[in-house]
Amino acid sequence: MSSPEQQLAPPVPEPLPATPDLLTGAAPSGTVERTPTGRWPGTPRPSRLLADGVKSALAQPVATATAALVVAIVCLVVFATTGQSAAAERAVMDRIDGAGTRLVTAFDQSGNAHMQARGVEDLARLDSVSWAFALGSVTDVRNADTGGLSPGVALRPLFGGLPPALEVITGRAPREGEAVVGVDAARTLGLADGVGIVTDGPRSWPVVGVYEAAGPLASLSSGVLVPSPTTPLPPSGPGTSAGAAPPVEARYLYAMATDVGAVDPLAAALPAVVPAAEPRQITVETPDGALVLREVVAGELGASSRQLMAVVLGVGLALITITMLGAVAGRRRDFGRRRALGATRTAIIVLVLVQTGAAALAGVVLGVGGGLAVVHRLTGNLPDPTFTAGVATLAVLIALAGAVPPALAAAHRDPVRILRVP
């Protein structure tokens, strides 16, 4: 039988089961056990943080649209200023790099090097060479149809085929044993239509076309070229033996490097690749003046545009910071509730950064698309793809950097003070 005190004592309620925070998985205050998923209290879940950050961006359309607009304006200004300069720089560099800065020339001025023509085939196989050809010794030829009364021009054997830098403008490309004349030589010989015969007296070659050379090869427009084999023909006739013919020699060799960076290695390797009796007698020339000009032009065009881009990005960083400060201030009670329920400071920082990143991506898509259209409209060219990707990446990074101070401020606020009812 119970005493009167026991009969009057109120019943002790049973404790409610602990319910972790749905966002962070944090256990209620006063417990330190791990959650059923094995996480420590307050550990953020990346997938839920990412989803919640995107929802937060959609839930604050004004702040998100403002941040996206700032990023888009930054991209537009960068493309309208620095992007225009980058497009112009790319056009200038493409013109400089067309041939003048990548052509390597080797020649046997005295004829004592005995440079073999078959070396052009080995040279053309190198990965750093776009194309290569060689020229042999000069033969003076005239128009056979004028009875030898026309002025003479220089004919050279061509080894390695007609290069792309020599464009056939009349007729067709020559085969072995046929001749093609340069535009200046065609006027001299009276063969502007690209049809006729040239002769040096004992030998004759049919003319099948006219070519035009420009840039560093412009001097070849005043001559005649005849494709020839790079190895000697087998001897024929009575009393001859195999291997009696000497190797075919070339006097000039031209090689086009794949890019500017391959010019110096190609020039260094060229004497070793091309067989010669006296390799030291081979003179190798590189376009040093054009390379210096390229560096100067690239530096002058890029310096001012990079400074302007830095200013624009700095202004964008300040505007993003101000925008996100306002967005964070509008959600201070939400962040306070999360902190009171056990959300970590890291979770709050990630939420702010994800919200900013979503806005920045939308702004980059809009700004880069509009910027490329503006640059193409103004210059007719587009910036290098690496420049476009760099601007997009910098814009996103600037937005995230601008959101760091507001995110830190939101994470370090006292949740008790935020949730206190006045």
Tags for this entry?
single chain, 422 residues, alpha+beta, 2 domains, 6-stranded mixed barrel, 15% strand
Compile the SSE list and pairings:
Elements: H1 4-8, H2 46-59, H3 61-96, E1 103-107, H4 119-124, E2 129-135, E3 139-143, E4 153-159, E5 166-171, E6 179-182, H5 183-189, E7 196-199, E8 204-213, E9 223-227, E10 252-257, H6 263-273, E11 283-285, H7 288-330, H8 332-340, H9 345-379, H10 385-411, H11 415-419
Parallel strand pairs: 4-9, 6-8
Antiparallel strand pairs: 1-10, 1-11, 2-4, 2-10, 3-4, 3-7, 5-8, 6-9, 7-8
Helix pairs in contact: 2-9, 3-7, 3-9, 3-10, 7-10, 9-10
Mean pLDDT: 77
H/E series, N to C? HHHEHEEEEEHEEEEHEHHHHH
Computed Rg: 39 Å
Span from first to last CA?
A: 52 Å
Query: Which stretches are poorly predicted, pLDDT < 50 over at least 5 residues?
Result: 4-9, 12-32
Subcellular location: Cell membrane
Keywords: Cell membrane, Membrane, Transmembrane, Transmembrane helix
Family: Belongs to the ABC-4 integral membrane protein family.
Pfam family, one: FtsX
